[in-house]
Design a protein that fits this description.
Blueprint: H1 10-23, H2 27-40, E1 47-62, E2 69-83, E3 89-95, H3 99-145
Antiparallel strand pairs: 1-2, 2-3
Helix pairs in contact: 1-3, 2-3
Length: 158
């Protein structure tokens, strides 16, 4: 199967998008949004299927974005899996070593799998995507401000 989410069923593509956004979020931001959501939608009991584990993952890159892949290096990753009383299972994978962030992502994933996908997306994922877009635009503007244009003048024949 290709890496494109276009070939995945819509619920799988939505879950992939949701987990991708959550995995890249800073713990403080995730914690604030998670607390806001759980004030109106309490989590309740859950069973830990896989306790939080910290490990490493190989990060691969491509020269120019489309060249041959190469191993860029390793990064820390934390994962956790939980099950809600309804049977919904959630998995949390996050960059870094935060076991609490992995727990929040696993709970959000399980809540989404338990019929709350629209709520999780509306209150957590969409605002996070908007924050990421704003941050990317700010970085691009800062980089564009330092861009230097080089040109060559050709002397006329004469």
């Amino acid at each position: 199967m290709s890496n494109s989410t276009q070939s995945l069923p819509s619920d799988t593509a939505a879950r992939k998008r949701r987990l991708s956004v959550l995995a890249k979020t800073e713990e403080a931001v995730l914690s604030r949004l998670f607390a806001e959501l759980t004030q109106t939608h309490p989590v309740g009991d859950y069973t830990v299927l896989r306790a939080p584990e910290v490990g490493t993952s190989m990060v691969r890159g491509r020269a120019g974005g489309s060249g041959a892949p190469f191993n860029l290096g390793e990064m820390s990753v934390t994962r956790m899996s939980i099950r809600l009383p309804s049977g919904a299972v959630g998995h949390g994978y996050v960059q870094g070593r935060s076991k609490e962030a992995a727990r929040m992502v696993a709970l959000l994933d399980a809540m989404a799998e338990d019929g709350m996908a629209d709520t999780v997306d509306r209150l957590i994922v969409t605002p996070l995507e908007q924050m990421a877009h704003t941050a990317r635009a700010a970085r691009a503007a800062k980089a564009a401000a330092t861009k230097v244009e080089f040109f060559t003048m050709v002397r006329g024949e004469g």
